[in-house]
Design brief:
By secondary structure, the protein is α/β, with parallel strands linked by helices. It contains nine helices and 18 strands.
Length: 415
């Protein structure tokens, strides 16, 4: 059971004090009526840390929902709400199937709901979006804003104070929260195993914080390998503009992306979206582990053509990397093996045609033991093909044009 320290002084709780530990406080009366299950729920309020950089004191709220039965080392599901919600209304959505399905945490998980509605200027990254010219300059660039620091510290506090597996922390968001999931999550592969964004309201947050438009600046960020990223957006959704820039940057940076689209607008009901694109829940993102390496698939021959930026009236649904899967085999200082394959039509029922074979470039990230540095010579083999490559300035192993089928083949590399 979590240990809670009740602090009586409002000044200490909600002020700038450097001498007291930041400690959220339970507010029991605020939890009534939020959920209709037997899962334990706790509502916390807290002040701010001076290092977050807020201009004045404020009170914030977050909510923790426990697994449906006691579980050691449980995963954590983190939710960022949309602009039309606050932390309380987001939790209430979970009472009804189909009401913002991305807000619904798996029963066996802990769930964390964070708020950015109570205080003006938060909005997951300080209030900037592409339609708000006055705030765009203020919140652009790679430097994180107070709200982003608050979210990360809240996730860390919950992970530390509950029996949570730190290698299984997942970030999700809808609309504005989807933008936040991309912008906050991509920078924090040291915290999140994977992230999933439902119709993100713009990609500007991620574009700025990851410096997608300025590759040289991004090289100085020294960020950890990003979480595996899932994103589904409607090309007929006005908030989805810029996804061509987002996809190109993710591909060019060798970042892991599963992307699905279709003419489902700014939808949040999975049943409705699945009628347009039945792939959005096909990848098991909640079993990705932060302490395991993963492959990044880029330039795949089986990818659909993007409707952004010029064909937004095209109602065709599409996907990027939707059919690729893997299984880790070994990860040592000198030898690494991973099984790569395509999911078959017997395993995945979909309206999309799954090809028998696809060519793709493969990069490896989150290697746990093998350290790769610029100039290293690495030998590799994949089925009957093999070769040798020199590691470039990005310190990432990449092999181009591998042919994947539904029959697993092992990619082996050794220094």
């Amino acid at each position: 059971m979590i240990r809670i320290i009740f602090i009586l002084s409002v000044t200490i709780i909600f002020g700038f004090s450097d001498n007291e530990k930041w400690e959220p406080v339970i507010v029991p009366e605020k939890k009534e009526g939020l959920i209709n299950s037997a899962r334990e729920i706790e509502v916390f309020q807290h002040g701010i840390k001076k290092e977050w950089g807020y201009n004045k004191p404020q009170t914030d709220t977050f909510i923790v929902i426990h697994p449906d039965s006691p579980k050691k080392n449980a995963p954590l599901y983190v939710v960022l709400h949309s602009a039309g919600h606050d932390v309380f209304s987001a939790v209430k959505c979970t009472k009804q199937v189909g009401n913002h399905d991305i807000y619904h945490s798996p029963p066996s998980f802990y769930a964390l709901y964070v708020d950015c509605r109570a205080n003006k200027g938060d909005w997951w990254w300080g209030g900037m979006h592409a339609r708000d010219a006055n705030l765009k300059k203020q919140n652009s660039g790679v430097s994180t804003r107070p709200v982003e620091k608050r979210v990360i510290d809240t996730v860390k506090w919950v992970t530390d104070n509950y029996d949570i597996d730190p290698n299984r922390v997942y970030l999700s968001g809808n609309s504005m929260g989807g933008s936040g999931a991309l912008g906050i999550g991509l920078r924090h592969g040291d915290i999140f195993a994977a992230i999933k964004a439902n119709v993100p309201a713009g990609i500007e947050h991620a574009d700025q914080r990851m410096s997608f438009s300025d590759f040289k600046k991004s090289e100085n960020l020294n960020l950890p390998d990003p979480p595996i990223t899932l994103n589904y957006s409607g090309q007929n959704d006005g908030w989805s503009f810029g996804h061509d820039r987002f996809v190109n940057a993710m591909n060019g940076r060798k970042y892991p992306l599963y992307f699905y689209w279709g003419a489902f607008g700014h939808a949040n009901n999975h049943a409705r979206i699945l009628k347009v694109n039945d792939l959005i829940n096909s990848f098991d993102w909640l079993n990705v582990r932060k302490n395991q390496a993963y492959p990044v698939f880029t330039n795949a021959s089986c990818n659909s053509k993007l409707p952004w930026p010029d064909n937004l009236k095209d109602k065709k649904s599409g996907q990027l990397n939707a059919f690729f899967r893997w299984r880790s085999i070994s990860d040592t200082e000198k030898d690494f093996k991973i099984s790569l394959f395509m999911i078959s039509s017997d395993q995945l029922k979909t309206e999309f045609r799954i090809p028998e074979k696809a060519a793709t470039d493969v990069s490896l990230r989150r290697l746990q033991r093998m350290k790769l540095n610029e100039g290293d010579s690495v030998k590799w083999s994949f089925g009957k093909v093999n070769g040798e490559t020199i590691i470039g300035s990005d310190n990432i192993f990449t092999v181009k044009n591998l042919n994947l089928t539904s029959t697993p083949q092992t990619l082996s590399i050794n220094k």
